[in-house]
């Protein structure tokens, strides 16, 4: 507790209508006078008429009231600082929540893209498995990794995707593939015979 060193401002106190303050719940007037009332020193005060000191029991009551008010001021400051701290934590939590929502939305978009990619790859794998199971011959592009079920699709692909490559190179490779397939067919016939 702080020491009581201030003198009482009697004029200011006498100007206050206590009933009016209580009836109107005039908290502003209370706030304006709280420091003067709480930290004033009453031990040296004398009655203006008889010059006698303040009654010791009344002085004790006023001192207890002053200590109670000081305790309540301290509690008010403590609770106000706690409130500001909690408001700051709430603000940070809300900001983190917004950040988490944005991150969640971003990750949901990435998951959607990955699912689409997964479906596309499953489809590609199932197509390749069907080709392997059927032992179907397929035609592979010589310029990239793509494979096609027939020669017409391969030619169409090369014209669309690889027009800069010379037609001669394509024809020689096509002839080589054709000769290789004929050799494979002759080998099969030879084995049958």
UniProtKB/TrEMBL annotation:
PROSITE patterns per the UniProt record, alphabetical: ZINC_FINGER_C2H2_1 (PS00028), ZINC_FINGER_C2H2_2 (PS50157)
Molecular function GO terms recorded: BBSome binding; zinc ion binding
Reported function: Molecular adapter that recruits protein complexes required for cilium assembly and function to the cilium basal body. At the exit of mitosis, localizes to the basal body and ciliary base of the forming primary cilium where it recruits and activates RAB8A to direct vesicle-mediated transport of proteins to the cilium. Also recruits the BBSome, a complex involved in cilium biogenesis, by bridging it to PCM1 at the centriolar satellites of the cilium.
Quaternary organization: Interacts with DAZ1. Interacts with the BBSome; recruits the BBSome to centriolar satellites of the cilium. Interacts with PCM1; localizes DZIP1 and the associated BBSome to centriolar satellites. Interacts with RAB8A (GDP-bound inactive form); recruits RAB8A to the basal body of the cilium and prevents its inhibition by GDI2. Interacts with GDI2; negatively regulates the interaction of GDI2 with GDP-bound RAB8A. Interacts with GLI3; retains GLI3 within the cytoplasm. Interacts with CEP164. Interacts with IFT88.
Places the protein is found: Cytoplasm, Cytoskeleton, Cilium basal body; Cytoplasm, Cytoskeleton, Microtubule organizing center, Centrosome, Centriole; Nucleus
Keyword Endoplasmic reticulum: no
GO cellular component, one term: centriolar satellite
Domain C2H2-type: 139-167
Name by which UniProt lists this protein: Cilium assembly protein DZIP1
Keyword Cytoplasm in record: yes
Organism encoding this protein: Cervus elaphus hippelaphus
Keyword annotations from UniProtKB, A to Z: Cell projection, Cilium, Cilium biogenesis/degradation, Coiled coil, Cytoplasm, Cytoskeleton, Developmental protein, Metal-binding, Nucleus, Zinc, Zinc-finger
Family: Belongs to the DZIP C2H2-type zinc-finger protein family.
Any one Gene Ontology BP term: heart development
Main location: cytoplasm
